[in-house]
Amino acid sequence: MMPFEGGLAGTANGTFVLSVVAAALYLPMTARPLSWRRMVAKTAGVALLAVLSFVAGGPWLLTLALALSALGDACLAREGEGAFMAGLASFLGAHLAYAVLFAGAGSADLFADELWRLLVALAMIAFAGLFYRRLRPVLPAGMAVPVAVYVVAILAMGVTALFLPALVVIVGAVLFMASDAILATERFLLAEASAHRRWSRPAVWVLYYAGQLAITLGVLLA
After folding, report:
1. Which of 19, 96, 165, 200 is deepest in the core (most CB within 10 A)?
2. Do 177 and 204 touch, CB atoms closer than 8 A?
3. What is the b/e burial string over 69-82, where b = at least 16 CB atoms within 10 angstroms of the residue's CB?
4. Using CA atoms, how far apart are residues 156 and 96, in angstroms rounded to an integer?
5. CA nearest 98: which of 59, 45, 61, 56?
6. Sign of CA dihedral 90, 142, 155, 200
7. Do 43 and 74 contact (CB within 8 A), yes or no?
8. Whether pTM exceeds 0.85
């Protein structure tokens, strides 16, 4: 059964299916050399989620976050430091849009009622701090501040997701954070010839897309 049957138009169902198919088609491409075909396949999955949010009448901040994420995907599918920084900026905007969306739609009172949310938030803060401390010595010149800002932004997304009652959105935010942590590890900590790259690249994609999908469905179907 499609997730939008009985509630939303067939266009939304079709867009949802196309997004999942595009994401599945990209998975075996994660180990292939960069190309226009690979970039289009990578961008399509989340770009179609942005279309889904739009046609389903989702919050504009959700649509914006997904569109910025798709732009980030396109940038990171290219080589060069400029493309990487453009991708970083796009995802920074996406995380901030998510944080504003979650903070506006949720309730901080949940922290008082459900202690586990506060504990998860503290765990997120501790992990982000320790991870950045590990990255800081190996970052290229001029990257320390941009990466620090990015870490704060994705941490804000994760913590504000805990304001929401929908557990699927929280899971999505955690998966998104895990994907970014593996991506940063791959880019800055792993040797180019490391055998870990064989699993890290598909893991980044699976966690990233699953996170975006969970957030999208959690917000749209709430």
Report:
1. 19
2. no
3. bbbbbbbbbeeeee
4. 7
5. 61
6. positive
7. yes
8. yes
Instruction: Report d(CA 6, CA 10) in Å as an integer.
Output: 9
For residue 80, is it left (φ>0), alpha (ψ between -120 and 50) or beta? left
Q: Please give the share of the chain, as a percent, with pLDDT higher than 90.
A: 70
Cα(67)–Cα(71) distance, integer angstroms: 6
Helix axes 115-135, 167-188, angle to 10 degrees: 10
Question: Tokens at residue 121, please?
Answer: 């938030």
Is the pLDDT at 3 greater than 80? The verdict is no
The residue behind tokens 């990578």 is 42
Instruction: Give dist(CA 149, CA 130) in Å, integer.
Output: 15
What pLDDT is attached to residue 222? 82
| Contact by Cβ (8 Å): 61, 98 | yes
Phi and psi, residue 37, nearest 5°: -65, -40
Type of residue found at 74: A
- Average pLDDT over the chain reads 91
**CA max distance for the chain:** 54
CA distance 200 to 221: 31
Length of the chain as a residue count: 222
Flag whether pLDDT at 109 surpasses 90: no
Give the residue ranges of DSSP H helices in the chain: 10-26, 36-55, 60-76, 81-105, 109-113, 115-135, 144-161, 167-188, 197-220
The dihedral over CA atoms of 54, 70, 100, 156, expressed in degrees to the nearest 10, equals 150
Instruction: With beta carbons less than 8 A apart as the criterion, state whether 94 and 153 touch.
Output: no
Residue 69's identity, in one-letter code, is S
